[in-house]
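Customer ticket, subject: "Can you confirm the structure for Subtilase family protein?"

Message body: Hello, I'm evaluating your service for our small team and ran a test protein. I'd like someone to confirm that this is what the system normally returns, since I don't have a reference to compare against.
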Amino acid sequence: MRADHSTSGSAGSPWAIVAAVLVGCWAVAVAVGSQTGGWAVDQVLLIGGLGRLVPLWPVICLLTVLLVGTATLPLALIPRSATVRVAARRWLAGALALGALGLLRTIPAVHHEAYLAALAATAMLLAVVTDRLPRRALDPGRPVAGQEEHAEAPQERRGVPDERAARPRVRPSVATLLGVAAGLALLLPWVWLGALGGLLETVLAGLAAAAVGALATALLDARFWGRFEAGEPPRPARLVLVGGLVAGVALLLVGAGVGHSGAQLPLLFALPPAGFTLAALHSLSRRTGGTIGRAPTASLVGLGVFGPLAFTDPEEISLLLVGARDVPFWVAVATGAGLAVGVVLAVAYGLLLARPSARPPRRTVAAATAVVVLITVGLVGGTVGQPGLHGERLFVVLREQADLTGLTGGPGKAGRDARATEVYRRLVDTAERTQADLRRELRRLRLEHTAYYLVNAVEVDGGPAVRAWLTGRPEVARVLVSQRLRPLPAPADDAGGSAVAPTGPPWNIAMIGADRVWSSLGVTGAGVTVGSSDSGVDGRHPTLAEGFRGGDDSWFDPWNGTRTPTDRSGHGTHTAGSAVGRDGIGVAPGAQWVGCVNLDRNLGNPAHYLDCLQFMLAPFPPGGDPFTQGRPARAPEILTNSWGCPPIEGCDPRTLRPATEALEAAGILVVAAAGNTGPFCGSVQDPPAPYPDVLTVGAVDDQRRVTAFSSRGPAAAGVAKPDLTAPGADILSAMPGGGYAVLDGTSMATPQVAGVVALMWSADPGLVGDLDRTRRILRETATAVEADPRSRDRADDCGGVANVAGAGLVDAYAAVSAVRR
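Agent reply: Thanks for trying us out. I re-ran your input and got the following:
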């Protein structure tokens, strides 16, 4: 009988062992390759502005299951060795779990709570199904030595007293406590470097992690570990090394399916070493006459999964936020730390628990270990970590928007101010009247909220339940998610510039003739104010300091509450410099500027984009109420906007449409970047660039060719976009700290067009607020450009040259000359 046990549990013939090794390596390679490849495709789509490819993850999951299944299925059926077949069947089950869980990535990342709820339900269902499979489905062959007691206590079932069962069973509790300690150790890097989302999001992440832990328990039960003990007495080294390796591959496959695109990547590194740790815990339980039970596996895997699932926002693991020390950097650091912790745990548990000569730890020692690690996690999270909840908010758009028809006002700034004042009054009146009942209910429910008038909307705290309630209210048109950033463990690096300071006008200023406007026409933009909504502006930069308008209503930072013009990322300083900077870098160096921060770490949301647009219509003092303390007479004449609000930030195509309509009605010109998602046709997508009342700007290079990255039209409803182009490649401008840098993008082109308009309105103050005539002059004086041959696109592909270059390259000298005629 003992010979049968040994044969069925042995590894079998050499070819079966070699085949198992190759199949295991294949499964790991396919899982890692498919997950990293899918994530990379997601990021390329994001950068390219092509939108989510919904079938991407279903296709990847299906291919992964087919590739892994094709290799593991023969190995699960053919070899005589039950051990090899057990390994292959666990890998096949892990691949199937990956496929089922990975399908959930069709749920958009912005609906994270829905994803986590679906993940918890699916993982638990898979755990129940796996646990109730017939024994032979996962465990072929006869029972191996000692498995009778691993499965159940047969003597107790028949009512026969079992002397071992009558004694207090302490050793399984030791394994449980050590499993909890190991899981908390895996969680530690995420508590230190990550940050939690909202309350519901965190609870659902905990439930999902627990369900994944239950799934791992069903796959790696006591019968699985028994296959690797092979004979009497058991061989702990073989159990830990071989069994741990097989378990690690199975855990990697399961982990590859957990989390939205990007959040699963850390689990590919953190979970495999846990297989060896679990093997050591099983060896400890086996040597002390017990079984590993469910708790150690569930706690170790569950806590390991909870870290990246709860402490990372899936929207922030994207190339949208790439920076030297931004979210991707810290996720990579936490992943590396998790891998190191996992390896240390595997080695330490293997040496301390699995050696035959090792003395099993007392329960008090195991309990003390778990408590110490738990206290450490709490201290780290409450001190050097980012304590608190940092969930998203909801952006509630109301059905009724203000009626802005029939406005009157004469030419020039006085007429513009009169229109802006009337627009402001109508917007505020409409918002206060239609929001009254909703805001009363929000106060009663103690839901924090912020009201807006430029778009009749309210931003409010809340999750899916609040969203469902708001959606059902008659005055509500739709409810969007307003993305919020989770804090970083350390501030992102401040941007700086290493380019040489200009000694005269750079090539782009000369190309559009702005320097000729200064020298020949004597116009510099004096008397005009440009509003910059961006990452901020370094108000102390030598080229920008003199142009700041000043007063208590020229700067607003809804993200961080700064009281003076500042900028950490540099994007806003660069764009403001191109519009109004001195020393030759700005198109309108005599104009003034005001600023607002609508981007933090290059991410925005509908509410903060609206905060800045609202501030530009009616500036207000620090801490002031936009509804009652707005000053429309102090509104800047021109707005430069080198940003867009994509779906990943919470916007839909209509979100900011009422805002640009209101600014148009007030006589404030909105200039916006087309985007950097070319050369694809129809890539002018993210608000506000597609709107017909926005002056949308594409980019050309120093050869007057439309750059490959410049987004193309047509926009929604066939609107031709962009309207104009301007230099946008290798543009020299200011950076925080007094430096300079050369950057590319339609972001760089946009402020130059805003600067040209400032020159036009400075030359003829009666043109201020006359947006139709201003656009007509810009179009009529623009010069022809051509497509970049490297982009391999033709104007005809996008419906004509108007959807590639608009009216052409802006010509400052011709436009100002036309104004003066």
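A couple of notes from the result: Residues 393-482 form one domain. The chain has three domains: 2-149+167-382, 393-482, 507-820. Feel free to reply with more questions.
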